């Protein structure tokens, strides 16, 4: 599916009325592939371990961002479980943004705290003032962004000088691999996911004005656990196990991207 409007409508159906978090590959209201580094994979996996893997992906980003006392925003917050989990780390405030109104309503209904709010909005047109946040993160949502360069510009705009960004999801390893990936994975063939090349993502962040732009490949702690969970029990028909083929062929992988908005000269920040 190549039409942008059709792709956006597909995502709204999948995440809205479809409520993707309800299928067995996910669990506990999260929607991510998980970070399995601390979870043993030599036996059957439990639902509790699957949920823990998804929280661990958030914790990986949050450990590096130091959100205590900071104003934080998550782009692509889904049902808000990961967003709400940040409150344990003592931020000044947390905002969650999602394109799908149903997800915003679910998040707002499930999580209530005076420091927490959820709003509907696009990653490339964020509904916030300039310099509104100190930290920005996005967990397994950037594969849906139609305009990564626009997201980078908006992230730079809403972050205060010295503010930091962390984004994690699966990206293409290089340009030109999307047709090969689409032949193996239906979510790329139908347009739900987009194969953004990691190099282009980093370039967009630098062009937007970010510094200290870096990418870490964390796939070794994502794919084995995910594939075992999909293969196990009743979830095997709910998601495509071809991810291991995509990774083995060097077409895509899972990355943690970090960057910083520089402090402006003479700002005193």
Description:
- It is a single chain.
- The chain contains ten helices and seven strands.
- The chain has 269 residues and is an alpha/beta fold.
- The chain has one domain (4-260): 3-Layer(aba) Sandwich (Rossmann fold).
- A seven-stranded mixed sheet has the order 3-2-1-4-5-7-6, sandwiched between helices.
- β4, α5 and β5 (159-172) form a beta-alpha-beta unit.
- It starts with a helix and ends in a 9-residue tail after the last strand.
- The model has no long low-confidence stretch (mean pLDDT 93).
- This is Cyclopropane fatty-acyl-phospholipid synthase-like methyltransferase.
- Pfam families: Methyltransf_11 (PF08241).
- Residues 73-166 form the Methyltransferase type domain.
Give a quick precis of the structure.
The chain has 269 residues and is α/β, with parallel strands linked by helices.
Tags for this entry?
single chain; 269 residues; alpha/beta; Rossmann fold; 7-stranded mixed sheet; 7 strands; 36% helix; Cyclopropane fatty-acyl-phospholipid synthase-like methyltransferase; S-adenosylmethionine-dependent methyltransferase activity; Erg6_SMT_methyltransf
Query: What would CATH call the homologous superfamily?
Result: Vaccinia Virus protein VP39
Spatial extent as radius of gyration: 18 Å
Helix and strand composition category: alpha/beta
Overall geometry comes to globular
CATH topology: Rossmann fold
Low-confidence stretches: none
Main β-sheet: number of strands, strand sense, barrel status?
Answer: 7 strands, mixed
In whole angstroms, the N-to-C terminal distance is: 46 Å
Taken as a percent bin, the fraction of beta residues is 15-25%
Strands ordered across the widest β-sheet: 3-2-1-4-5-7-6
């Amino acid at each position: 599916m190549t039409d942008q409007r059709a792709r956006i409508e597909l995502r709204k159906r999948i995440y809205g009325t479809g409520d993707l978090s309800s299928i067995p590959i996910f669990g506990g209201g999260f929607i991510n592939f998980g970070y399995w580094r601390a979870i043993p994979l030599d036996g059957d996996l439990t639902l509790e371990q699957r949920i823990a893997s998804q929280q661990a992906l958030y914790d990986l980003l949050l450990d590096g961002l130091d959100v205590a006392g900071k104003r934080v925003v998550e782009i692509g917050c889904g049902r808000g479980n990961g967003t709400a989990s940040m409150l344990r780390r003592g931020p000044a405030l947390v905002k969650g943004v999602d394109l799908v109104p149903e997800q915003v309503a679910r998040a707002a209904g499930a999580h209530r705290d005076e420091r927490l709010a959820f709003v509907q909005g696009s990653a490339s047109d964020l509904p916030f003032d300039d310099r509104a946040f100190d930290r920005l993160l996005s967990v397994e949502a950037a594969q849906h962004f139609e305009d990564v360069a626009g997201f980078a510009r908006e992230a730079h705009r809403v972050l205060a000088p010295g503010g930091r960004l962390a984004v994690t999801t699966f990206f293409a390893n290089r340009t030109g691999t999307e047709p090969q990936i689409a032949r193996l994975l239906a979510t790329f063939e139908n347009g739900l996911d987009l194969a953004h090349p990691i190099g282009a993502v980093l370039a967009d962040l630098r062009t937007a004005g970010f510094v200290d732009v870096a990418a870490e490949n964390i796939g070794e702690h994502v794919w084995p656990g995910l594939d075992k969970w999909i293969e196990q029990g009743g979830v095997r028909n709910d998601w495509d196990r071809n991810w291991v083929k995509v990774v083995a062929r060097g077409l895509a992988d899972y990355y943690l991207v970090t960057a910083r908005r520089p402090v402006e000269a003479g700002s005193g920040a």
